[in-house]
Amino acid sequence: MLVLLAILSIRFGANQNDNSTVFNAIFNYHSTDINQRIIRDIRIPRVIGAILIGAALAGSGALMQSVTKNPMADSGILGINSGAALMLTLSFVFFPHLSTQATTIFSVFGAAFTSILVFIISSLKKSQMSPTILVLAGMAISAFFAAISEGLALLMHLKQDLAFWHFGGVSAVSWSQLNNLGPWIFVGLAILLLLAPSLNLLHLSDDSIKSLGKNINVIRILALCCVVILSGISVSLVGAVAFVGLIVPHIAKFLIGTDYRQIIPLTLILGADLTVCADLVARMINPPNETPFGLIISLIGVPFFIYLARKDGHNA
Fold this sequence. Notes:
By secondary structure, the chain is mostly helical. It has 13 helices and no strands.
């Protein structure tokens, strides 16, 4: 499915291409052909970016749901994306000429700060906190940081410049960004895959985990680092896109059960499927104009979030 969606995304868009043009752009490239240049320089990095970001957001969502024992956890809903976006806004306001790597550092720092807040909130009580309380706290943090970002953007006349990050999209992903930030996403995904067997233990109590000889604090710290890397870089590349990490892990669990050794790899693939498909739909709805990428995801994510909230309320 992912391969098929990637091929369709490379071929279709504002400028339609036939199969031979796509083949030649990949295997027999001629820089004088404008259609091949569009495929090679714009669409291929865009598709690769969508794949990496989809995997990163879905994987961080699965990780947060496991560590916080909260089925509604997601980097967007819990405010981590908004924290990263706020620091990105501050970098535009005070350091407008920073490089992509430097703005990414700001974004990762914002994600780290907000993640620490979320984990502090989730650890306020020794007993498990209600998922609803944690989500409400995360949404409050998200609304607060989003309000500051909006205010700074209006005050400093940066509304148009920051519109891309508010709505989300992969249209601006370039080979340069992939070369600089792609390896860090792979590092985060590698940590996530290594953590997968340990995530099965998190269904147990802390005392039970310690009796098995595992250090729960090490697992949580590594999980926090992984979420920070994946969420921070994702926001710096495509903006504050929510709900990918909420939806995809639940689909993976529905398909293959509750073993995180299987859930995590499938979640990464399904997350890439979702973002590539959403990006393709965003381009095809009203060509040559693009519908905001984040809007397509939200149209699916908001009803799913309401369903989970109602389900949690009934279980409580």
